[in-house]
Amino acid sequence: MRTTISVIKADIGSIGGHxxxxxxxxxAVASHVxxxxxxxxxxxxxxxxxxxxxxxxLMAHQRGxxxxxxxxxxxxxxxxxxxxxxxxxxxxxxxxxxxxxxSGNIRGMGPAVAExxxxxxxxxxxxxxxxxKTSPGAYxxxxxxxxxxxxxxxxLILSPKLGKGFKFxxxxxxxxxxxxxxELNAPEDLYDIAALLRDTERFVVEAIYNRATGEQxxxxxxxxxxxxxxxxxxxxxxxxxxxVQGNFPATGEVLSTFAIGHFVAGFMxxxxxxxxxxxxxxxxxxxxxxxxxxxxxAMCVHNGKFTEAADPFDHPFWRSVQxxxxxKALDLRRQGFFGPAMLPYEELEYxxxxxxxxxxxxxxxxxxxxx
Length: 371
Ligand code: F6R
Ligand code: MG
Ligand code: MG
Prior knowledge:
single chain, alpha+beta, 9 helices, binds fructose -6-phosphate, binds magnesium ion
């Protein structure tokens, strides 16, 4: 069976700051998707979850990628729930719905989208990741390690199914007129891939394919809210789908890359660096509007229906990892806004500092020198 998995997520309002949606919001999204999606046969299954202040609608269907009705279903669910957010007086109600009129595709309207279409394997395990308080480049390092580095993905040397390597499709997210992409192959182009992916705010992995079979393994949301809105309106908080096992890395190989707790851009006011902490499903953010968090749903899809979701980051192993990552966060936070704790000027999301710098520019003087 040919199945498409689509995940569409948005921040449409929060209780108590930018930290988590209300129960009523989640229920409003779920009931809209049930009534207008599942009951009408538009989609075959759906699963609603939250990560920090973002609600994700994970859908299985047979309509292919970028289908207007599927995108509209998610858009309407978020729009309707925004009315609830307003009526409840939630903070940031409708924050990610940046455009009013739906015109066939939700991309470019604010919500993040990741989709993969494939011929279902007899058993089709996949991982759905959602991150809050960070940008799409947060997945660059885990993807590089899981799909190109045998130090993390032992399958690259142990399994003949992975041995030909993977093709990376990388997007220049600063180019706003159209999609500017490059295709590079691991392992031959490894240094070129590394040279691009180190620049997480400009170059972002959009998709990865198995080179031996041509099958798509990965899809990442690449939208940058500030490019759509022209100013800071919240961090992008990317979602990602990763097919696993068989011709792809094993679940555990992909998960192992998140034990690093690598530093990513985001955190408080979208303007700092902080370590990415793997957390259980439906976890809010907290300390310094963070730390940046990532959840993972491990599921199978079969005949267009999802199994229940396993929660791989809710496991005793991750407790000490989380403690270590909290220490990393505290260490960097001790230096406040100095050096790498705060993002470089070009990446700062808040308009206030731009205004402040403009004012200060006027007050600079060139000192006269007397010989
Ligand atoms: C980061 C984020 C929060 C807010 C911060 C200030 O993506 O959403 O850290 O930037 O709480 O929010 P405002 O400006 O809405 O008071
Ligand atoms: Mg938010
Ligand atoms: Mg968010």
